[in-house]
Amino acid sequence: MALKDEATVLIDLHTHTYPKSDDSFVSADELVDSARAAGLDGVCITEHDDFWTPDATAELTRRHGILVLPGAEINTDAGHVLVFGLHRYRFGMHKPTFLRAEADSLGAVLVAAHPYRRRFLADPGSDPDVRAEMLQRAVSDPMLRLFDAVESRNGRGTDVENCFAEDLRRCLARPGTGGSDTHYGHQMGTAATLFQRRVTSLDDLIAELKAGRMRPVDLTTARQPVPSAC
């Protein structure tokens, strides 16, 4: 079965570029070129606590011939959150309730990024009972319920970490997304989000994320993550 057809769109929702993200080693032009070479239909640039303007991403779209959309990755007390539809950082966004209020006021969408971090440890997590306890503790965190979706496939995460994220997503009854979390050019093309409908703008992206008409894809195997039982 083909991964996608003409009615679907494959977009990487989680990437970083230098110098806006000081831990990245790829420029915006290099990133977009890598996304196009990987066969993606689009890419979102989500810097750490910083934003690209719609005009700047529109210029990247024009220059490279592939859809480029702005977002950000905000560091909050509940972990990192991908935001789409906000365009500037305001003090207080580190508080999930404040960030949720900002998103609601502007019609933006929030996605919990790599939610296994600070919630799952692979070594003790190899014990099924310990893993179940970790999962239950994460599910019980009310802050996670403030987010519209969960990144259940992160290109820099291990299989066991991403499996935990997928189980967490299912238990929270949230739709899932995928992204490469690119900081180096070679990381592009590892994970993305397959949208069921065409996405040609930021408004389209937000609408599809809110509707949950998408799924994460592991591009190294071209398969949707296989969930485990909660």
Give an overview of the whole structure.
With 230 residues, the chain is of the alpha/beta class. The chain has a single domain (9-218), classed as TIM Barrel (Alpha-Beta Barrel), CATH 3.20.20. Helices cover 31% and strands 22% of the residues. The protein has seven helices and nine strands; from the N terminus they run βαβαββαβααβαββαβ. Strands 7-6-5-4-3-2-1-8-9 form a nine-stranded mixed beta sheet. β6, α6 (159-172) and β7 (176-179) form a beta-alpha-beta unit. The longest helix is centred in the C-terminal third of the chain and has 14 residues, at 159-172. It is globular. The mean pLDDT is 94.
If you consult CATH, what is the topology?
TIM Barrel
Order of helices and strands: EHEHEEHEHHEHEEHE
What strand line-up does the widest sheet have? 7-6-5-4-3-2-1-8-9
Task: Quote the average pLDDT.
Answer: 94
Count up the domains.
1
**Number of helical segments with 4 or more residues:** 7
Radius of gyration of CA atoms, rounded to a whole number: 16 Å
The first-to-last residue Cα distance is 28 Å
The top-level CATH class is Alpha Beta
How does the overall form come out from the CA principal axes?
A: globular
Describe the structure using short key phrases.
230 residues, alpha/beta, TIM Barrel, nine-stranded mixed β-sheet, 9 strands
